[in-house]
Amino acid sequence: MLWCWRAASAISAGSGRWAGCVRRLSMAKSKFEYVRDFEVDDTCLPNCWIVVRLDGRNFHRFSEQHDFKKPNDERALHLMTKCAQTVMQELEDIAIAYGQSDEYSFVFKKKSRWFKRRASKFMTHVVSQFASSYVFYWKDYFKDQQLLYPPGFDGRIVLYPSNQNLKDYLSWRQADCHINNLYNTVFWMLVQRSGLTPVQAQDRLQGTLAGDKNEILFSEFNINYNNEPLMYRKGTVLIWQKTNEVMTKKIKLPKETEEKEVEVTRTRTKVVPLHCDIIGDQFWEEYPEILAEDS
Q1: What is the tens place of the pLDDT at every residue in 57-71?
Q2: Cα–Cα distance between 197 and 187 in angstroms, integer?
Q3: DSSP string covering 251-293
Q4: With a cut of 70, which residues of the chain have pLDDT below it?
Q5: How far does Cα 127 stand from its chain's mean position?
Q6: Rounded to an integer, what distance in angstroms lies between the CA atom of residue 54 and that of residue 259?
Q7: Containing H/E element for 96?
Q8: Which ranges constitute the DSSP H helices of the chain?
Q9: How far apart are CA 145 and CA 159, in angstroms?
């Protein structure tokens, strides 16, 4: 449309081609434009962390129909992380992301001006990029499992005004990861190895505390929960990190007739997955740039 406006202003509207441009432009200012007044202003408050959290829609059914391994399917978790990395690479104003199970949270910088801070834009860009990536990269992680139908994801936006609010939010999600994974680990051991039905396993675990579940795992299945993979117990944290990449490059040296291959080290900023504790202070002390005002 921009080229059309410039052309129309530079050339008289005598020809049909330019007249068509002018007609389209005039329609943009038609009597129907009043309908824009019904749009709701959804600008996010300034100086707040913008968190977009997405969840898989009806993923209990989706995981069953696609034969996900229980209690954790490493392929599915790695696929979720790949999709989240893709989102961060496309939307570089994301300071940190955290994911577990079928959910991921993306934290946009406090001072982000992307999409003029419109909540609907943040949410739809994140969810659509993630969902399309899930379908696009499915075959890379589920090589022998056909995607039977497209998955769905819902999203929400929450604003957090202080750094402590944000840290508490991420701590809440990681605590949720621990609680759910401990329960699921015991539940599926009771079903898969003790032969209980799902209803019987649920009844067995009703009213139990974390210590009780750990005791069942150790005494009945010889499993020390603390030795389970960190990705299952802690979830996945995505941050930006500078990494050195060694590449092979062909160059022609002075006084040489032929090109030679040499190794070149380049520094790049990449989205790196971590499986670590983010509830304590150590993580935030190690990566202070995440919460820095000028980051």
Answers
A1: 999 999 999 999 999
A2: 10
A3: E--TT-SS-EEEEEEEEEEEEEEE----SSSHHHHH-GGGT-T
A4: 1-28, 252-253, 255, 257, 294-295
A5: 9
A6: 50
A7: strand 94-100
A8: 2-10, 16-28, 59-65, 74-90, 119-141, 163-192, 198-205, 210-221, 230-234, 282-286
A9: 38
